[in-house]
Amino acid sequence: MQIKKFISLLIIIILCSFSLSGCYSAQGLETLAYAVAIGIDKGKNDKLNLSFQFAILGDSSSSGSGSSQSQESTVTSVECSSIDSGINLVDNYISKKVNLSHCKAIIISEELAYEGVSEYIFTLVNDLEMRPDCNVIISRCKASEYLENSKPTLESVSARYYELTLNSSEYTGFTEDITLSDFYSDMLSTTTQPHAILGGINDGSETESTYNTPPYDTEGSYKAGETPIESKTVLENMGLAVFYHDKLVGELTGMEALCHLLIVNKFQSATISVPSPFNSNSTINLYLTTPKESKSSVEIINGTPYIKCNVYVTGNITSLDENLDYSNEENLKLIEKYTNSYLEHNISSYLYKTAKEYNSDISNFGRHVIGNYLTWDDWISSDWLYNYQNSFFSVNVNSNIRSGELSTKS
Q1: Which of 3, 68, 98, 284 has the fewest CB atoms nearer than 10 Å to its CB?
Q2: What pTM, to 2 d.p., does this model score?
Q3: Residues 249, 254, 256, 261: is their CA dihedral positive or negative?
Q4: Virtual torsion, Cα 100, 105, 111, 116, nearest 10 deg
Q5: 180-188 helix and 118-125 helix, angle to the nearest 10 degrees
Q6: Does domain 269-410 have CATH number 3.30.300.210?
Q7: Mean predicted confidence (pLDDT) in 241-254
């Protein structure tokens, strides 16, 4: 019995010694450069200009050619023929190995996206270090400029910073949280087309005049880089970038992105301004949520898609008018009527824009049609993604408007 205990103890000691021993090829924090974001631009002399935003860990120093954005990050750019060759060049230059396991954003310039992004998406998806929940952003400026202008005021530049920045879609509805896996699967799909987050730099120079815009259209009429906001943080994500296969074909505004979220059942909440039925120069602010999922159906009539959409929203009135009784049932019904009309108009405009201007079914209506075909060859022959441009739409919005607590009479 003593011998068995001795042998068992010896085996445990040997196993523990292996687990505690060092490994010559092991990579520690001091040997890795963690990229929190990647920027991809068209190159000048080579095919690509690849940029990395590195997080600076503790007292470690990163030697790079880019300018430092804060004490927590630095940007390094390189001209290269491919993503892999660019990483190798940077590895050699900074004397550390680039690690993509904490990368939270892939920024691609519009200039490059118009030419096609499949090569770069396939390369990144195939990289074992890349996480599938990494966000895809199409920048209206150069991707390198986007990274260089990452100057957050409320948190440090890190993977967490990009994650928090894109959470605004949950309470504004002006963009969508789109990941690398989402974009990749949509790019290969036969029922839908890919889309991405629309990003840009808001330095005040591209803000469009809204003097002739109705007051209830102002907030959602902007794209990234256009909102009338003055801040040290100049990065802005608003709207969506629309693709046909792997090529960028157009942009959507913040309000059009909100309509998209309602159709695809990703809308959570938002505050919007709708025209007041009581004063043509005034608006009513509503906090919108969805009580149940939207329903869509598709019929093919003489080869033409006819798409019906039923949308359901609940709105709480957040703005008050001392001259109006928002607890009055007739007033609420009138506001509901105006809300329904306003949302139906905007959703219809969004749908016709994707169909007639961009011919891009980013709402995945194709999933409602594929079951009508007996074989895969029949479905492919129907060429839904091309035929979507011939679609016609019928939109019906059902709203339930409630007055705020302060305006409710006891």
Answers
A1: 3
A2: 0.84
A3: positive
A4: 70
A5: 120
A6: yes
A7: 96
